[in-house]
C-alpha cells in the first residue's frame, strides 16, 4: 500500500476531477456536473481511507512520504508526508467535501459546474496544505486555497458578498505575506533548505525566535481566527452560501491552528514558551468575550460564526499549555468542530432554503412542521454546547483538564465556555424550534427530504461516535503529540 502515492491522490483526484466538472460547461449540463462532482468527491474520500487503515500509531515519524525534486536550483521539492497530527485533517477534509456537494445539489441553480468545481479544487489544495513538508509547497497550497473560497463567497454569496470576499482575502493575504518573509529567513538560516523538518532542528537565538513567532502568530491567528483579527469571519459566513460556510468553519479555520503545530511550536519553541501567556490571554478573551457576543446575535449564521471563534479559542489555548491532555484535546476539538459546525451551518441552510431568512425572529414552532429536522438540530445544538456523549464534550473536557493542570484559574475561566455555549446554542434552538407556529411561512414548511436526511444523519453518527468512543482519534495522534511536546520541552530555555 505504501508504494501507492496516496497523498498525491488525495490532492490531485479532487483538483483534476474539479477541472473535469468545470469542463461540463453550461447549466444545461447541470445534472451531469452534479453527478460527476459527487463521484469525484466520493473517490477523493476513498483514497484517503488507506491513510488511516495503514497508519502506524506507534511512531511519530512522517508516513506515506513522497519526495520529488521540483525546482532543483533553489532546493524546492514536492515533499509530502503526514503524521498523527495531520492525517486526520486530510480525511476530515475529504469527508466534508461530500457533504458540501450534497448540500448544494438542488440549492445552486446558476453556474452549477463552476460551484462544484470550486469546492473540489479547494479540497485538493487543502489536502496539500496538511500534507506539505516543503515550505514553498506549503505556501503555494496555502495561498492557492484562498482563490476558490474568494470566488465561492463573491459569486454565490449574499447581497454584500463582494465586501465580505474582499475583506476575507485581504485579511488572510496580509498574514500570509508575513509568513513568506519568515520562510525566506528560515531558508537562509538553514543553509538553503526549504524542508519544514529541517527547520524544526534550527538552533535559533531567542531574539529572532520571538520575531518569527509574532509573524506566525499574525499569519495563523488571522486564519483561526483569533481575537482581535476575527472580524472578517462573521461577514464571510453571513454572505457565503451554505457550502462555503461549511468548508470555512469545518476546514479553513483549522489551517491556522495546524500552522501553530507544524511551524510555531517546533520551529521556535523557546519563543513559544516565552510568549505563551500572550496566546493564552487572547484565547481566553475569545472563549469568554466572543461567547457573550454570540449570545446577542439575531442572525443564526452570525451566532454560529461567533460560536466558531469561541470554540477555536479553546484550540489555541490547548496548544500553549504544553501538556498532552491540552494538545490532544485541542486536536480532538478541531475534528469535532469540523463535524458540529458543518452540521449547524447545514441545518441553518435547510431552513434558509425554505424561508429565505436567517433571522431568529422569523421562526418559531418549527418542531410542529419539521419534527425530523428538529431532532437533528437539537443533537447538533447540544453538541455545540458540549453535552457529554457528543463529540463537542470530549475535546473541551480534555483541554479544561489540561488547563487545570497548567493553572487552575486558566482552566476555570476556560470552563465558562460550557455555560456560554449552552446559553447561546440552546436559546437559539428554543426560539427557532419550540413554541407556537410563528407565521404562515413556518406553517408551510416541509420536513427534510431523503438527501438532507442523508447528510445530516451521517454527521449525527460522526458526532455521536466520536463522543462515545474517541479512542480511534486520540490513538492516532498520541505518538506525534508526545514527540512534539518532547521537542518543545527539550528546547526550552
From TrEMBL:
Transmembrane spans: 6-23, 35-55, 85-105, 112-130, 136-156, 168-188, 208-229, 241-263, 275-296, 303-322, 334-352, 373-394, 406-429, 450-471
One BP annotation, GO: electron transport coupled proton transport
GO MF assignments: NADH dehydrogenase (ubiquinone) activity; NADH dehydrogenase activity; ubiquinone binding
Gene Ontology CC annotations of this record: endomembrane system; membrane
Protein's membrane topology: Multi-pass membrane protein
Signal peptide feature range: none
Subcellular compartments: Endomembrane system; Membrane
Domain NADH:quinone oxidoreductase/Mrp antiporter transmembrane: 134-417
Keyword Membrane: yes
Pfam families recorded: Proton_antipo_M
Record's keyword terms, sorted: Membrane, Transmembrane, Transmembrane helix
Family the UniProt entry places it in: Belongs to the complex I subunit 4 family.
Record-given protein name: NADH-quinone oxidoreductase subunit M
Protein species of origin: Thauera propionica
Lineage of source species: Bacteria, Pseudomonadati, Pseudomonadota, Betaproteobacteria, Rhodocyclales
